[in-house]
Amino acid sequence: MPEFVFMLTHRDRTVADAFEVYEEVRDAGLRYIGFKDVGLPFDELKALTDEIHAGGQEVMLEVVSEREEDELRSARAALDLEVDYLLGGTHAEKVRGILESSGIRYFPFPGRVVGHPSLLRGSIAEITESARRLAQTEGVHGLDLLAYRYDGDVEALVRSVVGSVSVPVIAAGSVDSEAKIRALSEAGIWGFTVGSAIFEGRFGGSPREGVEAVLSFSRSVAT
User: Fold this and answer.
1) At 71, phi and psi to the nearest 5?
2) pLDDT for residue 222
3) Are 145 and 109 in contact, with CB atoms under 8 Å apart?
4) Is the pTM here over 0.90, yes or no?
5) Total Cβ atoms within 10 A of residue 123
6) DSSP states of 79-102 as a string?
């Protein structure tokens, strides 16, 4: 069963009503809650992190900043926020130094990532080689793969990356249907994120209904 990470995000930004939405889904059975490094000020993200931890979930911060200095700033913020996971980003060598000995599990982006919202580009062979190198890097605990932000054969990409590394792989971005969740599960993904699709009602009318639907379906598919 792949792990479902509910992102309190829409269009690659943390939603303004993240606290209210979290309260709505707090007891829905989620293990992981995430948000982006853009959309809310630091003090609100810190309060949100504390609230999620109090609710018994682990917290994932995903970096979508394009500039290196912003990404490194977000990595330092992850320390102060005391999140459990840092996802994304493309400057692994510098970020892992910032996170060293922190206990934060680091899942950078493999491949060439461009734009905002983030898109994944390059050949499957190139992305797989990037994933392999990152997975062998000290201080990297997993990978954040922009599977459905790729402009090629997504299922072939996921199978290639998952089959080439021994660390967990999270599929992030544009997971908006049961068919995609099933395909990711069959490809052996460790987990996947859903944010915008839930806020757009793709899985149910309210965030609570959407979260419950995705949880139910993810538990029903075989890995």
Assistant:
1) -65, -45
2) 62
3) yes
4) yes
5) 12
6) HHHT-SEEEE-S-HHHHHHHHTTS
